Amino acid sequence: MISVHVDPRIELLTAVQLFTSWRKHGIWRKSYPYMRDMIRFFERYRAHRAIRLFEKLLKIGFNYDAPVGLMMHLSNPPELKIIVPLSEYLIKRAHGVQLLQEFIEALRNFSIKSNFIKFWEEHLSFYRIIEEMALSKLRLKSVVRSLEEYFGVRQHGYHVILAPLFYGSYGYRIKVNSLFDIYAILGPREIKEDLPVFGAALFHEFAHSFVNPLTEKFSNQFKNGDILFKPIANRMMALAYGNWETIVNEHVIRAIDIRVNTRGEAEGILNTEERSRVAEGYYKKKDGVWKF
What we know:
By secondary structure, this protein is an alpha/beta fold. The protein has 15 helices and 8 strands. The protein has helices spanning 8-17, 23-26, 33-42, 49-59, 65-71, 88-93, 98-113, 116-122, 124-137, 140-151, 202-217, 225-229, 233-238, 244-261, 266-279, and strands spanning 2-6, 157-162, 170-176, 179-186, 190-192, 195-197, 284-286, 289-291. Strands 1-2-4-3 form a 4-stranded mixed β-sheet. Helix 4 (49-59) runs antiparallel to helix 7 (98-113) and helix 10 packs parallel to helix 11. The radius of gyration is 20 Å and the shape is globular. It starts with a strand and ends with a strand. The relative contact order is 0.12. The model has no long low-confidence stretch (mean pLDDT 88).
């Protein structure tokens, strides 16, 4: 099963995030008509409990991929029923299940009181346009084939969710019997003629669902990661990489991406990556050894 679509759960989440401190980190930087529409429609509810609870979740580190993952466990608004049990990963990120349950209840109320469905239906033509644009640009079947050939694993389904106001992209997966539905939630690459253009990060975000479980399985072999993380923590956190395990995953996935998708140009692209990281001050190379 393969799909490309805008998802009402993610747009509802975005409507909440717009009125929290997350707007500075994970929301598209420049205004365009869709953003202005969403702000106008929902700003009267900026004091709603769902927004206060989301701010509380942010303060305990429930950010980046975690809120997106939470929405994948719920049915569409306004019901927002838990249709897949919340994962241990999400519960750990939220320091327990209670605050998540409170947030889901408040989000359900926010959806009803704000008449989110009205906003969604008023923008259906916009969603269809960007879905068609993305389908014409994304090499979805080719990406899926490359992933399954490289890892030797098939998944239950691959779903691309277009998030018109996200700044950044995320990967997530949900178990279906012995396989997984995996999700690439993509923010725009650019805004062109008032429309978000998607295309980057598809292979990368899908690859998280293959790589992260492997690195987690062997995480006890990564010793003293904080020693490596601390010198670059501020730079990494600005890129949504909040811990050493995340950075390990990012390095592994970038290496795989280079191997699979560069058509014989791997060495040149690897050298470019290294030069870019050195220029940005992430680490340096001395006597053939990389140091942070």
